[in-house]
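Researcher: Re-running this chain for the archive, since the previous output was lost when a drive failed. Same request as before.
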Amino acid sequence: MLSPVNRYLVVEILTEEKKDSGVLIPEDYKVNNSAFSAVKLLAKNSNSKLEDVFVGQNLVVPSHMIEEIALFGETHHVVLENNVVGYFDN
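Model: Regenerated structure tokens:
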């Protein structure tokens, strides 16, 4: 697991279930027309200012601010904590 520093959060992008349209598209094809994405918080840095937010909580962030890190055969998604727009009570 990637341990975030410098106000980064490690997140998992939550996707909506979509109906099968019968059209074949590549598995890695990504479509996100929304300005915002729902993500699940996987890890936050030890100096995080987000005191009311806990690991496992669902957050809302601007879609274009989610960064992808692919290293050593693993892919992680990170976002700066100041880009968190809000959160959902689980």
